[in-house]
Predict the 3D structure of the following.
Amino acid sequence: AVVSTQSTGKALRMVESSTLGFYGDNRVVNEEELRNPSDKRIFMIAQAISNGYNVNELNSLTNIDRWFLMKMQNIIVHQRNLESYRSRLNSLPRSLLLAAKQLGFSDKQIAHFVGSTEIAVRGVRHSFNLQPRVKQIDTVAAEYPAETNYLYLTYNGCEDD
């Protein structure tokens, strides 16, 4: 479940390089954009959650499964938690920073929410000894030894594979 939210933020940043990831800001919600699938709908979903739409309302408008909508809502809840530390990066608890990284927030995105810089967030993360771990995807479901390594970085692990 955590991996799905972590990959959401990473995927959005890879597809749309100008975005920070999945987050809400001060835009107005357009319900027509919620009803109709498009490449921008996920950003409108983030906005709707940020503006107080609940999972059932979004499910009715989008027909997206509630499970996925709850995962998206959790990302926005963590955004709000980070924003409560605006201009107080050095007061940010390790547990909140770790949770944000496990949810796929980039240092740049965290910096945006706390009103700081990416370099300052990275410094705090390093001071907390929060480093990603290298994990391997088993592409052959252990049926036989894999010939190619597929590796990824994650904050959802204690050791490297």
